């Protein structure tokens, strides 16, 4: 990579870092691209040179966060691990990124339909790993013959509830860390034979 | 992540040979978007697959899943300039 390309990439990453902090603090709805530019130390127009819109900025962050999560889950799934281990991996990743996903859970229902579809589409990639693992366990007779999509609806609905109201459920600490044993036990008992 | 390829038709990450169309790691498209020879399937076929995937993985209605699929595909190189 040339020095110029390196500098361009460094600027892009600085903008993403600033946007990440701003998103956790203010959400997408309250996020100011002018403030992101100030924090990153670039001109306001530079943000739009790298990202065509505020929506594109959010979707890039989301792709990055979920990309790292799906990579861990892919490794798990291909190591023939169990549904319990897949869930454990996901909860580890969610806990490590909790402020980001808590804000996303709070805000997604308020997004314009186009942005909401993209956000849900990205999350669908994570859900698909669970879909595949649970379907496999059902076929192998290790889980009861549940409606897999509905069962995952309960799991993700529960997680969204905990994340979107995290301050009420676990003030000042990680709600996932505090509830993970309960989350895993409840879900795995629900699908167990 | 740096070496990871993404299917230019559906966006799926392609990490091992079995993920690539026809098992060829130089294929721009994944195994789900291609036929047995590794050739890209028609738009309508890929769209139906994407719709099914969205409905199954997120639980949204079929209509919403179709909108999600169209939106997702419209951003990808294989279909960016496609008009149904």
Question: Which segments of chain B are poorly predicted (pLDDT under 50) over 5 or more consecutive residues?
Answer: none
Strand % of chain B is under 5%
The helix fraction of chain B, in percent, is: 25-40%
Query: In which order are the strands of the major sheet of chain B placed?
Result: 1-2
Whole-number mean pLDDT of chain B: 91
Percentage of residues in DSSP E strands of chain A = under 5%
**Distance between the first and last residues' Cα of chain B:** 33 Å
**What would you call the shape of chain A?**
elongated
Q: Return residue spans of chain A where pLDDT drops below 50 for at least 5 consecutive residues.
A: none
CATH fold label of the largest domain in chain A: Tetracycline Repressor, domain 2
From the spread of the alpha carbons, the general shape of chain B counts as: globular
Give your account of this protein's structure.
The complex is a heterodimer of chains A (193) and B (84). With 193 residues, chain A is mainly alpha-helical. Chain A has two domains: 1-51, Homeodomain-like (Arc Repressor Mutant, subunit A, Orthogonal Bundle), CATH 1.10.10.60; 55-191, Orthogonal Bundle (Tetracycline Repressor, domain 2), CATH 1.10.357.10. Chain A is 81% helix and 0% strand. Chain A has ten helices and no strands. The N and C termini of chain A lie far apart (54 Å). Chain B has 84 residues and is mainly α. Chain B has one domain (5-73). In chain B, strands 1-2 form a two-stranded antiparallel sheet. Chain B is globular. The mean pLDDT of chain B is 91. Classes of the chains: A mainly alpha (193), B mainly alpha (84).
